[in-house]
Amino acid sequence: MIYFDNAATSFPKPRAVIEAMADYFFNIGGSTGRSGHRLAIKASELVFNTREQLARLFNIKDSARIIFTKNATESLNLAINGFLEKGDQVVATSMEHNSAMRPLRYLEQRGWIKIFIVQADKEGLVDPAAFADILKKEKIKLVVVNHASNVTGALAPVELIAEIAAGHGSRLLVDAAQTAGAYPIDVMSGNIDMLAFTGHKSLLGPQGTGGLYVREGIELAPLVRGGTGSNSEEEIQPDFLPDQFESGTLNIIGLAGLGAGVKYILERGVSNIREQEMKLTEMFIKEAEKIEGVELYGPRDMSKRVPVVSFNISRHAPSTVAYLLDKHFDLACRSGLHCAPSAHRTIGTFPRGAVRFAFGCFNTAAEVEKGLTALAEISYHKY
Amino acid sequence: MPQSVVIVFKSTHDVIKAKSELEKACVAHELIPTPKEISSECGMSLRVEAPLLSRALELFDSKGVRYRDDLL
Q1: What is the pTM of this model?
Q2: Residue B35: its pLDDT value, please?
Q3: What are the residue boundaries of the structural domains of chain A, listed by start?
Q4: From chain A, which residues contact B within 8 Å (Cβ)?
Q5: What ipTM did this prediction achieve?
Q6: Angle at A36 between CA A32 and CA A42, to 5 degrees
Q7: CB under 8 A, 24+ apart: contacts of A272-280
Q8: Nearest CA distance, A245 vs chain B (angstrom)
Q9: Per-residue pLDDT tens for A185-228?
């Protein structure tokens, strides 16, 4: 099977990820923070080490500022619901995934917040000047930016947007679901206030893992309150990180896997991984463009995108193309609206949707070639 | 045997960070379940020998490890 569905979840995972998870269940098994026996200490160290690895990856000074969640969606919900208050105003882009859009629209529906949308162009690229225009006129508490679109692969110029936001006293929340592990992220130099990431995509960890980095000085209300193993004599939620936001037992086996995934990435190097993935992306785009009936979406400039490519074949519905690829070519990909209706409206593919190939760090040029042959056969009336 | 001191931390994250910093600096220590007479803080605390206490605290302060100085 050729797996080009890495934007949904990455597969395969490095062997070390599976081994770390097996090691936890075979040899550790304890919980974190509740007990003081050796297995509890080992489990606590394991979670601590995963936090430290992530802090290294994103250049976060204090790893306690990383809150573990179950995915990027929960991280975005925590950031949006925990930070915004009645009467606040927000800027988001038309490329947001529903994981950010829905919690924002919910607060808007309740009449609590006002949302200003920065419209991306047909390739999915946003212009920093458009943020400046709004921020000059309106008092904006939070700017929400999808770092890279899960539809077009378009990267947002986060550093420029961060500068503009900081200049107007607004905070910046970055949705790094498609970039963490695939594109260099530095929260310090990038001036990022909050970074939401998932563990199971380019960080190569298991599903059910993710996190939110929160810069010092930003106060959030927790989504969930409960036992933390700390301040046990108190019936009031602790006010320090990470405990304030990590009530209940953590997904320790998942975090064992995530730690191994991040370690693998740090050893291989994010830049090296990006170089390899973008080579495949460039090769695919160059050749797919030549196939009659294929329409590609997203930036042509490789420096402005991640290895997520959406396209359509004129004579078939996207779901038919995905079905044919699976059935006749042993190729896994995703078709549809990718939980991002606003992004599809932006590029003109709503409600039809598109087919999406997302290359990962284990894909090869030979696989891309097979994919191209398949698209040509599907487009040239073989099916 | 010299007298030992128990250091209590704000969170499990800090206990483990403290352990890791002490290991790096080769300061002898032991993780123990927090004695109930001291606190009902998080499950684990650190025990060091009294003469090593100032060295340990200095290390914690420089590395941003949050401990309960009110319980020392």
Answers
A1: 0.96
A2: 86
A3: 2-11+270-379, 15-268
A4: 32-37, 40-41, 44-45, 47-48, 51, 62-64, 228-233, 238, 240, 242-243
A5: 0.90
A6: 50
A7: A273/A181, A273/A182, A273/A202, A273/A361, A274/A182, A274/A183, A274/A184, A276/A361, A277/A182, A277/A306, A277/A307, A277/A359, A277/A360, A277/A361, A277/A363, A278/A302, A278/A307, A279/A365, A280/A307, A280/A359, A280/A363, A280/A364, A280/A365, A280/A368
A8: 12
A9: 999 999 999 999 999 999 999 999 999 999 999 999 999 999 98
Instruction: With a cut of 80, say whether residue A297 has pLDDT above it.
Output: yes
pLDDT class of B40 with cuts at 50, 70, 90: low
Asked if A242 lies within 8 A of B13 by C-beta distance, the reply is yes
* Nearest-CA distance B44 → chain A (Å): 5
Token pair, residue A349, equals: 């593919």
Q: Which residues of B touch A240 (CB under 8 A)?
A: 10-11, 66
- In angstroms, what separates the C-alpha of B10 from chain A's closest C-alpha? 7
Rg of chain A on CA atoms, in Å = 21
Under an 8 A CB cutoff, do B44 and A36 touch? yes
Q: Please report residues of B whose CB lies closer than 8 A to that of A259.
A: none
CA A340 – CA A356 distance, rounded (Å): 13
Residue A42: name the closest of A24, A57, A63 by CA.
A24
Q: Which of A34, A62, A230 sits opposite B11 (nearest CB)?
A: A230
What CATH number does the domain located at B4-71 have?
3.30.70
CATH number of the A15-268 domain: 3.40.640.10
Domain A2-11+270-379 has CATH 3.90.1150.10: yes
B33 and A233 in contact by Cβ < 8 A?
no
Residue A17: pLDDT band with limits 50, 70, 90: very high
Please check whether residue B17 touches A, CB under 8 A. Answer: yes
Helix or strand (DSSP H, E) at A274: helix A270-288
- Closest alpha carbon within chain B to A45: B16
CA distance A279 to A3: 17
Query: What residues in B contact A243, CB-CB < 8 Å?
Result: 10-13
Q: Do B13 and A48 count as a contact with CB atoms less than 8 A apart?
A: yes
Half-sphere exposure of A344 (CA within 13 A, CB side): 19
Cα torsion through A285, A174, A156, A267, rounded to 10: -50
> Nearest Cα to A295, choosing from A315, A275, A272?
A315
Hey, are the CB atoms on A232 and B15 less than 8 Å from each other?
A: no
